[in-house]
Design brief:
membrane; mainly alpha; ABC transporter permease; FLQE3_permease; transmembrane; transmembrane helix; 77% helix; 226 residues
């Protein structure tokens, strides 16, 4: 019940600050761009668009979200509330993943992508990874400029290998790299068991660290460990 309320509060927060309106506009622009491309380019273009925006929105927007919560003293209230860091992290991941999946589904359908279920699952796991990265960085920053600087290395190790892999520029063994597994699935291709295990391990590690850093952020604002 508490997790459900956290999820709905996050959705309300995102609607209030224009996240949904922004993605309606971006989705229209992306669809127009896809329709303007030659037919044989659409599949890869859709995969790049999905992976680099709706799937990774948690990495780009989490800094603004957490800074807004700090400015409104929401984090102070959470620090002394019964809410657990686990619930906070899951609510953030779930609410942003919901937007990602809707936008990804529309773009995939516009591009006539094959294996829509694989595309959406790939979008979901990508969104989880990027949102957890975003939470980890957001708990450690004091300004939006700091957040942007801290996310640059993450973008480098996530987007560059994935795009190179998508165009088959990297060796075959790079297909086991977690973000490469994600973009394969966003492209509609199934993953190997070993590759998916790597993704699962990455998500678990990032979840543990994000939960820890959220708890530390709350404690630094007056929360105490009971």
């Amino acid at each position: 019940m508490r997790l459900k309320k956290m999820f709905l509060l996050d959705m309300r927060f995102q609607a209030k600050y224009g996240f949904y309106f922004l993605y309606v506009v971006l989705t229209v622009i992306y669809i127009a761009a896809l329709f303007a491309l030659p037919e044989n380019w659409k599949e890869k273009a859709a995969a790049i668009l999905i992976f680099s925006d709706p799937a990774s929105m948690g990495l780009f927007f989490m800094g603004a979200i957490v800074l807004l919560e700090k400015s409104q003293h929401t984090t102070c209230a959470l620090a002394v509330s019964p809410v657990h860091a686990t619930e906070y992290v899951i609510a953030k991941v779930s609410s942003l993943s919901a937007i990602s999946l809707v936008v990804a589904a529309i773009l995939a359908l516009a591009a006539d992508a094959d294996n829509l279920h694989i595309v959406l699952f790939g979008t979901f796991i990508s969104s989880v990874i990027f949102t957890l990265f975003g939470i980890i960085v957001a708990t450690k920053i004091a300004s939006l400029n700091q957040f942007i600087l801290w996310t640059v290395p993450i973008e480098a190790v996530c987007f560059v290998p994935a795009i190179l892999h998508l165009f088959k520029i990297t060796p075959a063994w790079c297909g086991y790299y977690p973000v490469n597994v994600c973009i394969d699935m966003v492209s509609g291709h199934s993953s190997s068991a070993i590759g998916f295990l790597g993704v699962e391990a990455t998500i678990i590690i990032l979840f543990v660290f994000s939960r820890l850093f959220v708890r530390q952020m709350w404690d630094s604002m007056g929360g105490v460990k009971l």
